[in-house]
Specification:
This protein is mostly helical. The protein has a single domain, classed as Hyaluronidase domain-like, CATH 1.10.3450. Helices cover 56% and strands 3% of the residues. Strands 1-2 form a two-stranded antiparallel ribbon. Strand 1 and strand 2 form a beta hairpin. Helix 3 runs antiparallel to helix 4. The chain is globular, with a radius of gyration of 14 Å. The N and C termini lie far apart (35 Å). The model has no long low-confidence stretch (mean pLDDT 90).
């Protein structure tokens, strides 16, 4: 396989998320505002999980949160809102309460709060995800 410069990732599951370096790193990247880099790592996990199942959906939702962060930094509020709303749409129907250490309802609340902050004159987009280990 030719090296593409994109991160490669093994599949993520409930048994390995505490040691899955790409997953843990992607959460750190989101928390620190490195949205593009987080997106790249999350996409590699999403692809490794064949874009199917609740874990892939969690990664897809986090990718949307990262994309919202990128759009927000560019001053593009309509796409920011769209990405955040889509993240909630992806997460809402999932049956699990906790997926790979992230409480689904807590994440939806965080994203909803981010949406509400966008209506303020000088909003600040803050992402702080904590794993429940």
């Amino acid at each position: 396989m030719e090296f593409s410069g994109e991160p490669q990732s093994p599949p993520l599951d409930e048994g390995n998320f505490k040691q899955h370096t790409n997953y843990l790193f992607s959460i750190d990247l989101l928390n620190e505002g490195y949205y593009w880099e987080a997106h790249a790592y999350l996409e590699s996990i999403w692809n490794a999980n064949e874009r199917k199942g609740s874990i892939a959906k969690l990664c897809q939702a986090l990718i949307k949160v990262g994309a919202a962060g990128i759009k927000f930094e560019l001053g593009s509020l309509p796409p920011t809102i769209g990405h955040l709303q889509r993240a909630i749409e992806i997460l809402t129907p999932l049956p699990e309460t906790i997926i790979c250490g992230i409480d689904r309802e807590d994440l939806i609340l965080v994203i909803s709060h981010m949406l509400s902050e966008l209506s303020k004159p000088f909003p600040k987009l803050i992402i702080e995800l904590r794993l429940k280990i």
